[in-house]
Amino acid sequence: MAGLTVEDLKKIKAAHQATATLREGGFRAKVTVHMGTCGIAAGSRKVMTALIDEVAKREIKDIVITTSGCAGLCSREPMATVELVGKPPIKYVDLNEEKIVKILTEHVLAGNPVKEYALVMGSETTY
User: Fold this and answer.
1) Has domain 6-121 been given CATH number 3.40.50.970?
2) Contact 106, 120 (CB under 8 A)
3) pTM, whole model, 2 decimals?
């Protein structure tokens, strides 16, 4: 087996940087994509993939993307919760790839919640 190159190590570092940022508390936002079986059946994997791809494309380093199980509203899946530091969390429903990119752009990066996709604001928080 060939040894690791410097480029291999850089790729590993980049892949795990979000986890380290979360532990150190240096993130400004957390996006949780709800991925219970109902969410997966409704398309949450596509939503998660679109979000990860967009964050990688824009080289955003201070946002944590995570998953959770069912949020209890199966008929409104796919769902995601956005938490900005110092702001109440917002749960978004009936998502698709285009909607999650709009949420990333307008809410996570610009601080303006996307009201037409929001179900509730301020129901939960981790900070």
Assistant:
1) no
2) no
3) 0.76
